[in-house]
Design brief:
By secondary structure, this protein is mainly alpha-helical. It is built from 13 helices and three strands. The longest helix has 23 residues. The mean pLDDT is 88.
Length: 227
Amino acid sequence: MGAAALKQSLGITLNEWTLLEQALTHRSYLNENRQWPLEHNERLEYLGDAVLELVTSEYLFRRYPGFQEGELTILRASLVRNEALAAVAGKFGVWECMYLSKGERRSEGRARDRIVACAVEAIIGAIYLDQGLQSAHSFAMKHILQNVDEALLRKKDAKSEFQEKAQANERITPTYQVLEESGKDHARNFIVGVFLGSTMIATGNGPAKRLAEEAAANEALRIKGWK
């Protein structure tokens, strides 16, 4: 359990290994272990999330020069969604190494995916603080961005997935409405809202209505906790 069991499988080098211990410390653990000397991992998660977004955005920008902003946004979201990061965590046994309360240790499904996904982001934050952006970039490239081809196949499925989840969970079929349309013919931008009944769940934007709807559906999945 803990960083000692994880550091070898991760294949990383850190000068300050307590950063990895902190990355594995869930808030709930502190409630049952008042003498634990480290903070929980939420600050590292915040930092790692920003680093991962930057690394992923730059990688996709360079790899797919023909993709517009909306398409890149959808693809990035597919790469860094909770389920994808949880799969990365599973390869290394992150869950087994985390410091969790007894109650959180019993988490399953999406709750568990969320916890380990946040831990992966916290690990990236720890690598960035200790080794710099290049090391964080290398880690993300090796373990997360290698899945880009799989993510590319999923990137246009957000509308279908949100409709399926909405019908299953709330028995409502989503509807979409263009909220704003701007730009010249060669550089259009659409802002679309996705609604369940009369309630707008999320918005998305893109250079085409279809892409804006995909972006809105993807954001709605995130907001509802359905991905």
